[in-house]
């Protein structure tokens, strides 16, 4: 069990960066809903979430890092929290390292052994007019 929701996110980041797929999967509740960054589909079964992460973590040099100062925590009551923020995914495509700035929302229940109840992540769109990231 966790006492702080940001510890859940820290474990999730560490699991991705160390390619510990089982650790990452154990963080997701069996009834979790998941809208991942690199899939157009809602994943809401353990089989779908497992399939997504097996494919994702198999990418060459995959990593994720939190953007400093972007995370906000909302306490919804009891042991329920919402974490929002920005992270950067990195991995190689065709031998080239690429980075994908993405926003996230996690709904965390720290009273559960599998605390992630919902996870949504999407790439931040680029503004075509200025070439800058949205929100900059």
The average pLDDT value, as a whole number, equals 93
Number of domains: 1
What is the helix/strand order? HHEHEEEEE
Structural class determined from secondary elements: alpha+beta
Helix run count: 3
From the 3D structure, determine the CATH topology. Answer: Nuclear Transport Factor 2, Chain: A
Round the Cα radius of gyration to an integer and report it: 15 Å
Strand content: 35-45%
Enumerate the spans where pLDDT stays under 50 for 5 or more consecutive residues: none
Shape descriptor reads: globular
Q: State the share of residues found in helices, binned by percent.
A: 10-25%
CATH architecture: Roll
CATH class: Alpha Beta
Distance between the termini: 37 Å
Give the tally of β-strands.
6
């Amino acid at each position: 069990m966790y006492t702080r929701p940001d510890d859940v996110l820290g474990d999730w980041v560490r699991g991705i960066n160390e390619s510990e797929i089982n650790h990452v999967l154990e963080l997701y509740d069996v009834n979790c809903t998941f809208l991942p960054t690199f899939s157009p589909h809602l994943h809401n079964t353990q089989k779908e979430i497992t399939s997504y992460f097996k494919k994702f973590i198999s990418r060459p040099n995959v990593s994720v890092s939190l953007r400093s100062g972007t995370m906000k925590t909302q306490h919804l009551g009891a042991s329920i929290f919402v974490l929002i923020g920005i992270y950067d995914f990195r991995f190689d495509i065709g031998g080239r390292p690429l980075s994908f700035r993405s926003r996230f929302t996690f709904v965390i229940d720290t009273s559960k052994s599998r605390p992630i109840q919902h996870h949504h992540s999407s790439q931040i769109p680029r503004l075509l007019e200025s070439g800058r990231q949205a929100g900059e």
